[in-house]
Amino acid sequence: MPNTVPLVLFGGSFDPIHNSHLWMAHSVLLQFKAVGIQPEIRFLPTACSPFKKTQTSAKHRLAMLRLSLRNTPFAIDKTEIYSTSTPFTIDTLTTIREKINSARPLIFMMGQDSLDSLPRWKGGFELLEKSHLWIFPRIDGKKTDLLTLPNEIQNKQTLNVEDLYLNPNGLIYLDKNTPPHLSSSSIREHSATSELSMLLKKSLPPRVLAYNRKTKLYGFTSPYES
């Protein structure tokens, strides 16, 4: 077995980070630990998503991440967040792969929605040449859709977490655990109502909830102010 620590990247805008994000990171951690493997898990905030017209500033998103990850085994990767150009996942994975041992397992987390749109991403399925993919199911209301793979990459699926450790890249693991149904976009789009107050308490880690009360990012003023 390789004498190296798997590096797991959890990319996203985290606008804001919420409890479902943390749940997914813990799910990955626990499944690796169940087979005796201790991974390194990093949250990878993007500078600006090519699919989003507006976004809360990097300063606030990074501050909320730091608050959320305090006293956890997780870290923050700043490869993208201060980029002055539009970051694409394939470029980020190429950069990170060049920095780490070529034999080190690299894993990129995403949801079924992102997997479904992967053919439209720069590089598309070439991501598998740089890393493994760890996929979480899509949640539609109270229903969890079954995880599926496009025909082109069905032969890349593995059912064993250990395989992600034994190979540096090229495999897809479908996580059958269902994350809590929380949405950053729902938080951003809600107006200042009692319904939003309940949503924030349900969705945000306590330190992030306190940060929002101080900064009034969500539900008070435009969430895109610096």
Task: Provide a descriptive summary of the structure in words.
This protein has 226 residues and is of the alpha/beta class. It has one domain (7-182): HUPs (Rossmann fold). Helix content is 34%, strand content 15%. It contains 8 helices and 9 strands. The protein has helices spanning 19-33, 58-69, 89-99, 112-117, 161-166, 184-189, 194-203, 206-215; strands at 7-12, 40-45, 75-76, 106-111, 132-136, 139-140, 143-144, 157-158, 172-174. The strands form 2 sheets. The chain has a 7-stranded parallel sheet. Strand 8 (157-158), helix 5 (161-166) and strand 9 form a beta-alpha-beta unit. Helix 2 packs antiparallel against helix 8. The radius of gyration is 17 Å and the shape is globular. The termini are far apart. Residues 222-226 have low confidence and may be disordered.
Q: Estimate percent helicity.
A: 25-40%
Number of domains: 1
Structural class: alpha/beta
The ordered string of helix (H) and strand (E) elements is EHEHEHEHEEEEHEHHH
| Strand content range | 15-25%
> Which geometry do the CA atoms define?
globular
What ranges have pLDDT less than 50 throughout 5 or more consecutive residues?
Answer: 222-226
Give the biggest sheet.
Answer: 7 strands, parallel
